[in-house]
Amino acid sequence: MLIVSVNRARARPVQMNGRRVMTAIGKQPVEGRVAVSRMGLEGDEQADLSVHGGPSKALYAYGLQHYRFWQTVRAQARVSLWNDSLPAGSLGENLSLDQLDESDLWVGDQWHLPDCVLAVSEPRFPCGKFNTVMGFAQAGKMMVQSGWCGAYLAVIAPGTLGAGDAVHVVPGPREVRLGELFRARARA
Question: Is the whole model's pTM more than 0.90, yes or no?
Answer without folding.
Answer: yes
